[in-house]
Amino acid sequence: MEIFQHPFLYPILLPLASGLLCLLLPKILSRVSGWIAVIISAFTVYLVWPLFMSEPQTLDLIANFSFKVDKLSGFILLATTIFGFLISLYSLGFMKKKIYQNKYFAYLLWTIAAACGALLANELIILLSFWGFLGFTLYLMIALGGAQASSAAKKTFIIIGATDSLLILGIGLVWIITGSTRMDGLAIPLNHPHTYIAFLTFAIAAFAKAGAMPFHTWVPDCGEKAPTPVTAFLPASLDKLLGIYLLARTANDLFVMNWAMNTLLMVVGATTVLLAVMMALVQHDLKRLLSYHAVSQVGYMVLGIGTGIPIGIAGGLFHMLNHAVYKSCLFLCTGAVETKTKTTDMDKLGGLAKVMPITFICCLIASLSIAGIPPFNGFASKWMVYQGIIDAGKSSGGLWIIWLAVAMLGSALTLASFVKVLHATFLRKPSAEVKQNTIREVGLSMTIPMIILAVTCVLFGVLAYRLPLNHIILPAVKDTVAFTGIWWAGPATFLLLVGIIVGFVLYFLGNKGKVRMVSTYIGGESLPADEEVTGIDFYKTIQDINPLNALYKMAEKNFFDIYDVGTKFIFLFVEGLRHVHTGRLPWYLSWVVGGLLILLIFLRS
Amino acid sequence: MNHLIPLFIAVPLGAAFFIPLVSRHVKWVPDVFGNLTMFSLAAMSFYTIGQSEVYHLGAWQTPIGIDLRLDGLSSLLLIAINVIGLAATLYSVAYMRIFTSKLRYYSLFLIMVTGMNGVVLTADLFNLYIFMEMAAIASYALVGFGCEHEELEASFKYLVLGSLATLFVLIGVALLYGMTGSLNMAQVATSMQSAAQAAQGTMAKPYIFALGLFICGFALKSALVPFHAWLPDAYQSAPAPISAMLSGVLTKTIGVYVLARLLFNVFGISQQLLLILQILGALSMVVGVLLAIGQWDMKRLFAYHSISQIGYVVLALGLGTPLGIIGGLYHLVNHSVFKSLLFLNAGAVEYSTGTRDLKRLGGLNQALPITGKTSLVASMSIAGIPPFNGFWSKLIIIIACVQAGYYWLAAWAVFVSLVTLASFLKVQKYAFLDAAKMALAKIQHTPFFMGLSMVVLAILCVVTSLAVLSGFDAPVLIAPAADVLIKGLITL
Description:
The complex is a heterodimer of chains A (605) and B (492). Chain A is mostly helical. Chain A has 23 helices and six strands. Among the domains of chain A are: 258-479, no CATH class; 562-604, no CATH class. In chain A, strands 1-2 form a two-stranded antiparallel sheet. The longest helix of chain A has 32 residues, at 310-341. Chain A is globular, with a radius of gyration of 26 Å. The N and C termini of chain A lie far apart (59 Å). Chain B is mainly α and 492 residues long. Chain B has one domain. Chain B is 74% helix and 2% strand. Chain B has helices at residues 4-22, 29-46, 72-95, 102-121, 125-143, 149-180, 185-198, 205-221, 231-237, 240-267, 271-293, 298-319, 322-353, 364-367, 369-383, 389-403, 407-433, 448-463, 478-487, and strands at residues 53-56, 67-70. Chain B has a two-stranded antiparallel sheet with strand order 1-2. In chain B, helix 13 packs across helix 19 and helix 16 packs antiparallel against helix 17 (407-433). The chains are: A mainly alpha (605), B mainly alpha (492). The interface between A and B is large, with 56 and 59 residues.
């Protein structure tokens, strides 16, 4: 079979087969499965490297079985497999002594395989099949979290599965409209209701996978309950890559966008940025907080792609890549904290900076990145998105000022919420619950991925143009990208560093030895020994502001959760139908007779 | 002449009477003979692939003798009936120990199989009625096999509504015989066609009446809404392997198959009839699934899903397009695999824990690993998740709806598949993922034969999805079966 020797198929078939092997391994050999996953995922990176480097190429196996790689899918493919490798390396440490190791690594490899398949597909049906399978592996991996994760797994899979089904409808429509389901030839103009519906089904599938509003509600639940590496890999990085890939594909290649649809994307993006970050501000659980940020950041990507301007699209894609880097770094840091302290509740953490310095520094860099502080990578991509928004505003309407304001406000609130995270987890007085003296830094297999990701945050920020943009992002955008704003990362970083050094010098010259140590006080009164200032309560005041308090109350009652609202709606009908089914035989007999009569009358006509 | 054809009726019928004769005092005989019979039938059924012929029983020519007709469609159904039947008998070896009389059980089971094999093979309307009644009466008895209050009530309800269907069908057969003077399907089809041509395309009133009675009768047998009321009670109360047979193959054979055969091959399909099928299918899909998601009894939940899934099949057939018919028949096969597996899972859960109430179950992934894994496969299949078989047939059906221009039906099918997914995730959550609510030590292990049968069906859930790789161009199973319906009226 020569067709099985094609380089396109190895990254799909190899992890698939080795995943099956992991699943079939006996329990005693469960450590082996972790090493299989590490080796195979590293090898997959090696396999996709030539695909990433190559010019766009297509492979037609048999009729309706076509694969393709281009610059867009090539770079996401590479990113996916690298994340897969980092996560399996990290999991080697995290999953130690867990009983479900074999299953976990099997599902991880399957996820990598299916993601490669979805990215390489040049046929909508193949894309859909791998896409659906990804939903299934996501469900299986969340379900590994045990009984407490069962609700989150169910909810996630219902939302993802529902949007996958919608995608079938969209693909059917595309097939009818164009007579083909090959992706490389499509460029459907939006001119008929059917094309709009088809576009929307694709966009909704992308939103649900990436976690944009209103299909985001599975992300926080999943982030809180699923094992941490699962969250770091799936909702935080891989699902973003895939969701935004689909959105970019849909908006740039499959359909020809118009003003209305671009505006729709921008509305979704802006809403997601703002509302999710507001929810993130008031969270107590570290993982849940990070998950809300994972939703909020999607908003920037959607905003970028929604501009329809090359620089905005490039910014959206760049932000997707950056987000995957810093958000998985943040989740891995959380996982490190969780491994040592057995909790992710910020009320119970504190003072970990001294005992876990590597984790703290990685977390600090990632936090500054997500908050969009220059010169880190988050700033570089947000800056491009802002330019895209401003550029888009030149040609159409005055709405751009709203999107820009929302995006910037979202960025500020993100910073606020990460100040809380850093303070509560690492900096404040050690809490009573966590015994400081027993905690050490986590092992090498867990720190290496964190360090790699943190270093990437810095590199992608400082060398934004020279490294990622030039080689990865800009070739993936169809048109040439014109930078309207000015930002020289190199000199700016230099100036920032100089500023910091000067500050240090002044501090050491002026104040060294003059620091006065006093006990903690609040409002002029010194604090009793049994009370703590956590900083967390400070953020609770947001919930009391009018009219935000009403919104927060509604959010608490799941009023904005499409899953809960949908469930209630469906059960209205269920109750109605149950009411009719009385279980009495004569009543049922009358249905039969009635049915027969209607049938005969209909046939006579 | 292929002499295998009558054996599909003769072998199970003979075995049904042979087993009680020899096994009064030897306990192992019913198990061994029952399984051997089903095994040989299942093996034989694969020899019918690609064959089509009219078999004249005793070499008597039509219309004097009795004809059996083997074609792509009956071959497909034969394989489904006998393979699922084999899985059910394998399962029964262990499961039916909790009931008293295995001997009567196997006897009735084989009579039911005889009836179903007869229905798909016969080329004669009256024989169709006879075989249908054999299968139906055996199934009334099997539903009530537990002889407790609940089982008997379900059986009685099923009996009353089933007899009504029988009555409709018998009157329909009589009308057709009176009008055409023949009972052979091909001859009836030809005479009706010439009568319609003579009357400039309009159908005479007795024909219309017969048509209405047939649709109503077989809709009752296939439990389409609003004729579905007997089904939930019957499936819930029957022993698990019988629920698997009823849902997996019986309603399809004596319901959907006959309906399709009569409408497409005997009466000749028309836009009006297609519309009826679409309405019945669409109603069943949504009513079934909405009733299912509210249930807490595992078997009852699955039972309502049968209504919904049969709705998919009928809807797809009602599109009338080649793609729709392929999708419908493919879904029919897939459904018989995954739904019988689901009922066997429910039986295994009840066998081990003593309850089917989802509110009292939990943690079964640890306690019953085989049941847990196979039920996950079956649930994903019915919910239409790749790479399992249900995904592909659902995909084809939805795309066929779009292709035929019925966008709302496509959206309808998407909605139903969403609720289906939700209700099966509910089952997975409450029965298998959640924390155990009963002491795990109390849970009995799954016996070997039950496990074996479930694993075989779970593998079939994946294997049947390979059919999609052939692109339905290859002349195996589904394409020839669809051809039979697409070609329309049959001739001698």
